[in-house]
Amino acid sequence: MAPIKTLRSGDRGPAVAFLQLALYRAQTDPGQPDGIFGHNTALAVTKFQTQSDLVPDGIAGPRTQEALMPFYTGFRRHTVARGDTFYRLARRYGTTTSAIAAANPRLRSDRLQIGQRLVIPLGFDVVSGEIPITSDIAAVYIAGLAARYPFLRTGTIGESVMGKPLQSLTIGNGAAEVFFNGAHHANEWITALLLLKFCEQYAAAAAFGGRIGDQDAAALMERTTLSVVPMVNPDGVDLVTGALTDGTAYERAVAIAAEFPQIPFPEGWKANIVGIDPNLSYPAEWERAREIKFAQGYTRPAPRDFVGSEPLEAGESRSVYDYTRAHDFRLTLSYHTQGEVIFWQFLDYRPPRAETIGLALAEVSGYTLAETPYESSFAGYKDWFIAQYNRPGYTVEAGLGENPLPLRDFGPIYAENVGLMTSALALA
User: Fold this and answer.
1) Which of 52, 94, 98, 393 is a plausible cystine mate for 123, CB 3.0–4.6 Å?
2) What's the pLDDT band for 252 if we cut at 50, 70, 90?
3) Are 192 and 182 in contact (CB under 8 A)?
């Protein structure tokens, strides 16, 4: 997890929005997180610094950011002192004994030893639907979830063009392996947020004996193993959400975009940072995808729809391909936006149970089950998975509108898809 950078008055962007979220969680309300470090944010920083015995200069520097870290990650570490119990710690930190027990499964409240280190989950969700996501924010969320739910396994499956890790989360130990992925396309970054929120709610339900969708979460974990790569294209996501605004990679993206003035920049960017579309890179009739996209004018690196010079040239796609080959996934969901539609087939492949499962996913979400339009039918992850394994693979186009979808749509989109994801696990 990368350190959080110094922020001060006049700064803008998703890092400022994340700071504002942390200040709100710390009860020094900076107002609505708008990504602009203005007067109210400076006042909130100063108030937090005063409460934390820091120099109240209104600048979120290294010491202030370190003190704020629990409000970014959703947990703090506590060294056991005489008289500590889960109950007393829950009262002190505004959390619950069950949350502390879940984060420290090897410890008992009545047998704590002085000097032991505990993870104390704080009284709010880790993943927020109120601010845009970036690769760094995703890393913080994942670290927070792993600390609060130790049975949730994290890792990396490769790296982006710029060397950013492609992070993964795994929940469950069952025989049926299932794979969800999101944000192949940069301006569809809200899908990464969707998948991380599902992981959080699924883990919480399993930890506390609850349900996710219509399923008993703990029982579902025993039957299935869910692997999630929420952000396949972190460089592109950072470009669209404003975390990447300078440097060689940014300047190269600007130059690529200048050759396609009809595509708004950066909000129209779907590709990886060197202008290859990661979801047109898989070896599933890739040559046909090239013919179609070249005919549309995408014959060179572009903000969208350039297939590259050969299959799997996009390193991000190669990583997902290798990860899939190393597993035995019975079903996959690839999350995109938008259209409220589920695509389920590839050419004349009709995997066993694929249409039946697809109809069930459509019913629970309210989305339409459809065949993929011809011009979008080739070289996608779903296409390759179906052709390679003859198993159910779906592209879910979540939400409606123009990409990137606004954050105000996140709540309704999640409500539509939590049952879809849960059903995909249960039916795998």
Assistant:
1) 94
2) very high
3) yes
